[in-house]
Amino acid sequence: MTVTAIEAGDPGVQQAYPPRSAVISWIFFDWAAQPYFTLITTFVFAPYFATHVATDPASGQALWGFATAAAGIAIALLSPVLGAIADATGRRKPWIAAFGAMLVIGASLMWFGRPGDEAGIPALLIAYCLATIGVEFATVFNNAMMPTLVPPDRIGRLSGTGWATGYIGGILSLILVLGFLAANPETGRTLFGLTPLFGLDPVSHQGDRISGPLTGVWFIIFVLPMFLLTPDYPARSRLRAALRTGLSELKQTLSELPKQKSLAAFLLANMIYTDGLVSLFAFGGIYAAGTFGWNTIEIGTFGIILAIAGTFGGWLGGKLDDTIGPKRVIAGSITILLAAIVAILLVNKDSVLFVSVAPPVPGGALFASAAERAYLILGCCIGAVGAPLQAASRSLLIRMAPRDRVAQYFGLFALTGKVTSFIGPLLIGIVTAATASQKSGMATLVLFFVTGLVLLARVKE
To answer: Which residue among 44, 59, 97, 400 has its CA within the 20 to 30 Å range from the CA of 298?
Structure first.
């Protein structure tokens, strides 16, 4: 594990940036981590859990929401503290390795989530929480390495390229699962018409469950270039001393934050709209499964199309970030998300925007009905702006935060992204459970995007 010769933020010193190979290796972290969000939280395992492990889709959505909320609370409480300690110790990679191990262990344990096994649901949700905490914290410390990799005027492009690359990784992992591993229980064939590899049993949904171990193996393989080729920050002090120093600096930062009104407004806005975005991604597949009765292959194909849209959106958003500024990219993305979620709520299997249409035919062609195609188009809009929204948000933070406390501010960034992240899933879970309606639960997301957009107006770049 190499380290930088010059630490970002040293006053009076010309910043030295690593070679292109180091930057590309850092970008591969997004490639390594994205399958967790693509396969586990959105398009394969979460819908499988809601429709086949839980008693019914509504209760499954509620349970998944409660587990996501629990993980969000843990992340919110610990992110700024760990970020402050990391700034004091200097190193980032040991933290990424430790939390990456949590991701691998938690994801691998999801293999044991068998259909209809209600007794195993608590253990399964604990594994999901463990993996979620791991991937989120690993991402915090990976983000904190960005200022040492490229000059400030290229941060937006680096961030957007990372997100776009991650989406490509998500696409390939989905193709791997749908084309070769997960089969339709009725036909016994995968999306490519093949018998599942390794003798995976379609009836017991082993193709869906293998997405957990596959995510862990994928992360181990593709995170290695970052560890081997990307320089780390130099070590500063040992953990015990860093704990005292980090907590003291965190206290100072929090006391100064009210004076930095623009930065505080951004962190508050990020807190709200990120909650809405994470909840939308987390429950989009579950909502589609309950509304249209989609199985893993249909949801996964939907995910591939959305990821392709996200790849182009992330690449284009990175260029726009450096051209018009991250705040405008964020505002435009939230506006499109708001319009898309309102439209989705007006799509039912037999109507689109109050216009009656023919419902999907069981066993019919893929996305054959007008309602399914409308949902697909709206999903592409969400996928296309979701990547630039997240990429521009971390780019804006880097432009606004003191460079000698970047991990600490990314800890606060994660805090604001997670301190209320339990509220979205929790609210969806409560409303869904109370009304027994997935649509009512999803409708709560409108509030998050409207509030985030209003708060963003107070941010000055």
So the answer is: 59
How many C-beta atoms surround the C-beta of residue 308 within 10 A?
A: 17
Picking from 140, 167, 163, 201, the residue whose alpha carbon sits closest to that of residue 43 is: 167
Q: Which of 6, 25, 8, 130 is nearest to 409 (CA)?
A: 8
Alpha-carbon gap, residue 440 to 434, rounded angstroms: 9
Angle value at C-alpha 130, between 427 and 198, nearest 5 degrees = 110
Q: Give the separation between CA 374 and CA 370, rounded to whole angstroms.
A: 6
Give the helix ranges, DSSP H, for 144-260: 155-176, 206-209, 211-229, 239-256
Given a cut of 70, whether residue 415 has pLDDT beyond it is: no
Structure tokens at 67: 């587990």
Instruction: Confirm if 178 and 295 have CB atoms less than 8 A apart.
Output: no
Per DSSP, 55 falls in state S
Instruction: Indicate if the pLDDT at residue 242 is higher than 90.
Output: no
Question: DSSP string of 341-385?
Answer: HHHHHTEETTEETTEE-PPPPTT--TT-SHHHHHHHHHHHHHHHH
Centre a 10 Å sphere on the Cβ of residue 421 and count the other Cβ atoms it contains: 29
What residue has token string 């933020």? 9
pTM of the model: 0.72
Q: Is 352 helix (H, G, I), strand (E, B) or coil?
A: strand
Q: Which residues contact 363 (CB under 8 A, 6 or more apart)?
A: none
For residue 104, what are its two tokens?
């691998």
Question: What is the rounded CA–CA span in Å between residue 320 and residue 315?
Answer: 9
Confidence check: pLDDT of 1 > 50: no
DSSP state of 181: I
Region 451-456: what's the mean pLDDT? Answer: 89
The pLDDT of residue 239 is: 64
Q: What is the dihedral of CA 179, 183, 186, 191, to 10 degrees?
A: -10
Burial (Cβ within 10 Å: 0-12, 13-18, ≥19) of residue 193: exposed
Binned at pLDDT 50, 70 and 90, residue 417 comes out as: low
The two three-digit tokens of residue 397, written as one number? 């933070």
